[in-house]
Amino acid sequence: MMTLLTLQFAGYLSTGLLAGVLAGLFGVGGGIIIVPALLYLFHLDGINPVISMQLAAGTSLATIIFTSLSATWNHHQRHSVHWLMVRRYSPGMVIGVWLGAQLAAILESDDLAILFALFEIAVGLRMIIPTANHATPAAERANDPKVERLLPVSATATLIGTLSTLFGIGGGTMLVPALTLLSGLTIHQAIGTSSAIGAVLSLVGTTGMIQSGWENSALPPDTLGFVVPVAALGVILGTLITTPLGVKLAHVTEPQHLRKGFGILLLLVGIRLLW
User: Fold this and answer.
1) Binning pLDDT at 50, 70 and 90, where does residue 237 land?
2) How distant is the alpha carbon of residue 67 from its chain centre?
3) Least confident span in 61-65, 148-152, 201-205
4) 197-200: which pairs have CB atoms within 8 A and are 24 or more residues apart?
5) Which residue from 99, 124, 156, 175 could staple onto 194, CB 3.0 to 4.6 Å apart?
6) What are the residue ranges spanned by the domains of the chain?
7) Is it the case that residue 138 has pLDDT exceeding 60?
8) Rounded to two decimals, what is the model's pTM?
């Protein structure tokens, strides 16, 4: 029994070690790796598949609180967090998180997993395929109210908050493209800013997932709503070790390489989830 528990915890810890690097490198909170890994580990543990996606999403959000805070601090020290954008996006994100938590309690786990995979593939392709950009420079666009009129920040943030909570991600998979393509930040600014917004999102999202799953009769023992504490602990320990490494790598990597690497990662994860 002790050996089994040790192996399970080792799986959670290993997931965190990889997710921490990705969180610092891409500003994604690590959820794109944590959720698929937890789905696999929960399957091995014999957890009811009816709620496995909800448990993976809720547990992932709990771990992202710490991952995002660690990444934000490291990026802030390198002056790559655009705090004005954090303030603009956060209110809408909170509303979206609440909506996502309510939907998670009523949607089927298999449907959520398929939607998550398709979402990863779509965003991955968007980041890989180059597009012509004749807009004003990033520094100007980041403070240009016209950008907000084209696609209001509040609406964008609400949508991102909803989907991020459903999928158990820190929002970086959508925030990084939004901050670069819509709000005009550089890729390094977008990654740092995404980490800060992700901290807000994951804190509120975790609370919502605990509340929405609290009385679910299909839950296994020793859970807090849709959060598995022992899994969260293992992942958190791993991410805290490797997130600073990811931040260092992000600041010595060419922006175009970061963008393509980010897209390829999302594409591979999405395809793997479908099969």
Assistant:
1) very high
2) 10
3) 148-152
4) 197/85, 197/86, 197/89, 197/90, 197/93, 197/171, 198/27, 198/28, 198/29, 198/64, 198/68, 198/71, 198/170, 198/171, 198/172, 199/64, 199/65, 199/68, 199/69, 199/72, 200/86, 200/90, 200/93, 200/94
5) 175
6) 2-274
7) no
8) 0.77
Q: 246, 24 in Cβ contact below 8 A?
A: yes
pLDDT score of 28: 66
Shortest CA distance to 15 belongs to which of 244, 262, 265, 238? 238
Instruction: Give yes or no for a contact between 157 and 184, defined as CB atoms under 8 angstroms apart.
Output: no
The amino acid occupying position 264 is I
Q: Which of 59, 152, 114 is nearest to 273 (CA)?
A: 114
Closest to 58 (Cα-Cα) out of 232, 226, 239: 226
Stretch 210-221: mean pLDDT: 87
* Residues facing 71 on adjacent strands: none
Give the distance, in angstroms, between the CA of residue 172 and the centroid of all CA atoms in the same chain: 5
Sequential DSSP letters for 214-249: TT-TTPPSS-BTTB-HHHHHHHHHHHHHHHHHHHHH
